[in-house]
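Recall the central idea of this unit: under ordinary conditions, the amino acid sequence of a chain determines the structure it adopts. In this exercise we apply that idea directly, starting from the sequence alone.
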Amino acid sequence: MKLDPNSDVSQFVTFTLDKEIFGVLIHAVEEIITLPDKVTPVPKAPSYFSGMINLRGEVISVIDLKKRLSLPSSDHSDSTRIMIVSIADAKVGMIVDSVSRVLPIAANHVLPPPAIMHQSNASYIFGSVQQADSVLLLLDTDQLIRVNELAIYSQIVDNENLPATRELQASAAVKERILIGFKLGFQNYALDIKYIEEIIELPKITPVPEMSHLIEGIFHQRNQALPILYLGNQFRLPPSEITEETTVLIINDSGLVMGYIVDQITEVFRAYDNEIIPPPPNVSGRSAEQLEGILKVKQNDTTEVVMALNVEKILSDEEHEYLIQLNEGLNDGQDDPADHQSSSEVISILKFHVGEEIFAIRVPDIDEITIMQKMVPVPKAPPFVNGVINLRGDVITIIDLAKVFGNTAQSAAETTRIVIVSMEEQKAGFQVDRVIGIEHVPLSLFEKPSGLIRGQYNLFVEGIGRTPDKDEVIILMDIGEILIQSETYDGEWGNHLLGEPEDRISENVSSF
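Accordingly, the structure predicted from this sequence is:
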């Protein structure tokens, strides 16, 4: 944005970059903010493109102005600011060292840029003003980022308007999707659940030296040998330290089944297609293909910017073909696992820890998985009810499964999650200690619980199974029964069953 030809005097906001003074027309400046705690990077973006921030519900691209002008970089300080400027009807944030003042400048005082101006900056500087002991350089903000490099981001609705908006979107037949959120380093990513076959703990990996440039090695899962790689490698992120939260997503990419190592599963959430904002056009090449778009996810009082990945473009065509051939070579002569499961229905389950034991519920019952939220206590509620939360306009009761099972409840930790379920239009949240992952298992794996109906938590058990490959016991919970019991609880479980015939009790306890 240059001088107004109809005005003799223009107002400029002045700021410093590497001790040099610059100015932009005040009409181009929307606001000036302090540097936020988090600027979400975009993989493989230009070096001057710092990433994106969420500013009151709007996703804004941020550039490092010193890098854009080829000036020496330096650490940020307390005086570092982001100037939000308007460029071609879009908002862009510019990181500057400090903001000085608003200065009126007469048009006849504006001189051409210095003749020795670096050629790469010539198009960005439209004029200069001689001051007592320095030269003020005037920036043409419209030239900093070309129009064809900008993404015009849509305004995301406020939290209180979200339920009504979702109803409108649903009535307009906008596709709703379920996404698995995870972290790579400090960045948030997500994949569409339709590509994910399972989510498992990090298995034992057998290195393959001649393929170390592409994969970490191979692992065995359900009678198959599968390649595995750290997903961050595709975005040139350094490998992270292995922790108990390190997880593997087993994905099916156009027939290629393999494992992606991620640092931590964060949540499962639902989003409409039109809530996924297209990636900025200045992210080009492979980066643009790998990134499906940007999504904002609200948790408590904060909003996270999440990169939604395009599963089918994470690998290059050559890498994909190479790994397809590798899979075929690894599994030549192997029995088809489907042959062993053909006699039994296969169900999808979510496994999680409550204390030291492993439990599971059926995936179709799950709406989403979220981190701990601020809870409001409910007076005179049963002892297993921790309170209620406001989740995007829905008031949801949170049940602590540890208390339901009679275990000692643990304090909430970083791994604590709330599993939101729906049964017959009723929603509830179950607090669990740690989510393990999603698996597809044969229904025949589980047997009806034995022993007294009212013993321990058999009342809520749909089946008990032992996995042959890990030799672990999984308790499949009857979510519907827990909700029924919670509604009728008056100090003792199972009162709603008293006086019913024995065969009716069996039907309530197990669906097998």
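The longest strand covers residues 9-17.
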